[in-house]
């Protein structure tokens, strides 16, 4: 399975079409270099890479991409608790406003997935 398929799941085609619509060459760099070379390297598992991506995207203030990687982290094996802890940890270094925005976005991702939140059910 490709890294993109593992992270993007059933949204792979839609994400790829969206990226192609912006710029075909940029899409190719993202697909080939970012996903199929860097993210596919040995040394870190995809779950760890996705948790690191979450932190970086919180720092950059990129909510659309953050939502993709919040969902991707869950797809590749991160638990809701691990994602929440990653967001909480980011508050120390990136600030509480960014962590709060990320946590709200994560709640939306969970709601859209139809997953019960920790402590529910």
Automatic annotation (TrEMBL):
Q: What GO molecular function annotations does the UniProt record carry, in alphabetical order?
A: peroxiredoxin activity
- Residue ranges of the Carboxymuconolactone decarboxylase-like domain? 32-107
InterPro entries in UniProt = 4CMD/NDH-1_regulator (IPR052512), AhpD-like (IPR029032), CMD-like (IPR003779)
Give one Pfam family, short name only.
CMD
What the entry lists under SUPFAM superfamilies is as follows: AhpD-like
The name this protein goes by in its record: 4-carboxymuconolactone decarboxylase
Q: Which organism is it from?
A: Thermus parvatiensis
């Amino acid at each position: 399975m490709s890294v993109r398929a593992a992270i993007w799941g059933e949204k792979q085609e839609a994400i790829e079409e969206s990226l192609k619509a912006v710029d075909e060459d940029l899409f190719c760099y993202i697909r080939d270099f970012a996903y199929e070379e860097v993210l596919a390297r040995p040394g870190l598992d995809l779950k760890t890479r996705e948790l690191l991506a979450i932190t970086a995207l919180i720092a950059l203030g990129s909510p659309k991409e953050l939502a993709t990687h919040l969902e991707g982290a869950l797809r590749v094996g991160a638990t809701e608790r691990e994602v929440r802890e990653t967001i909480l940890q980011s508050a120390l270094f990136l600030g509480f406003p960014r962590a709060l925005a990320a946590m709200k976005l994560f709640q939306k991702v969970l709601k859209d997935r139809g997953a019960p939140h920790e402590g529910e059910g």
